[in-house]
User: Fold this.
Amino acid sequence: MKKLAFFITWGCLLTGLNAFAQESLDLEKAIQIGLEKNLQVKIGIENIALRELDKKIGVGSFFMPVIDGNYLRTWSIEDVTQTFFNDPENPNEIDDAKSRNRSYSVVGIYGFRPETLVTIKRLGLLTEISELEAKIIVENTVAGISTAYYRLILELQRYQVLKETLRLSKARLNIAEAQYELGGAGKRDYLTAQVDYNSDSSLWLTQLQVIQNSRVNLNELLAIDPDTEFFIQDTTILIGDRLSLESLTENAFMENKLLLVNQRANNDAFLQIKELQASRLPAINLNSSYTNSQFNSAAGFLIQNERQGLNYGGNVSLNLFSGFTLNRRIQSAKVNKRIQDFSLDQIEIQLKSDIQRAYNTYENNLMLLTIEEKNYQVAKENSEIALERFRLGIASYLEFRDAQVNLLTAENRLITSIYQIKEQEIELLRLSGKIFFDNSMEELQLPEN
Assistant:
């Protein structure tokens, strides 16, 4: 289906707006700037990095042994009295007996619990959830930037409409003034034309403020200074190929990131149950150590005692009773799983409803567009005829003003209708997970660790 477009030759959109800078900006560049600078996007990507680190730390702690090195060195000076069994009457007294002890050891411990395998799966699942949440932020940012960008185009188009209206009011004022000076019309008509011209001037100036605020809104999403000004390259809003409700719904259930997050959360709730149940199984602990120690003493039977060697062993542990704590935790996990099931069903219902509502608005605006295009052509022709009749003096100022107002209204309704269709397009593409249909961004990149 050919793309619909509203083609009106505006010339330079910023003629007379000397305050606006000339650095150009299109939608692709706006999205690129937003994804590079938007702080919410950066936070989302950093959250992925945190989850990746948690996963690596978790896997390392589960499958790698713990190895500790110990070194001990002590000295002592003591007064010692030794009484021997074979000569209790003559104790041996030693003053300032010195002793020293030196030892070092390397101890390795490795423990394996059955629930470890489930925990690793959960860590991987939580990493996927963080990635999806980051993509939700990116999609919302792209949708917000796109909507704000097209909103600015709409306001610039309205500015040109008001500018053209002001031109017609000025022409009418000049005619009324000339007729009044020549005696062909009363002063009342001339004053009325002047009032209408002033009113249109006020609307035109007010629109400048609306444009400035629209620029600020766009700059906020781009995370740049509010005073930064761009020359918007696009002068029209193009409507894409007609969207299919069936295709949108089907794609949403495969690509909608919020739905995928809830599906992963549901899987995580299931794994939590398995993790707790697996903790009932026996755990295996292996240990090994190498020790070297030396003891020297000036008192006692042994002057020196030195030992070195390898020790190793292991044990199997099984929890027999924990005061029903584990049972309660498993029951709580099962309740949480049921809650996640309900939440997932609710998200699916809400997603279908959101797509249906947006699509209904989209379809209705497409039908209205045909009407508004015809209405604009009629109003434009009527305005041209009314201006010529007024110039020839065969039409009243009321007839001309009425045609002028009708043209302004018709043109505003037409460009607003096109914007609303584009707005719904963006929303439908976001809901269906197809917001990157134009390849305007690359895949998310994690920061270097």
User: Anything to note?
Assistant: DSSP finds eight helices and eight strands in the chain.
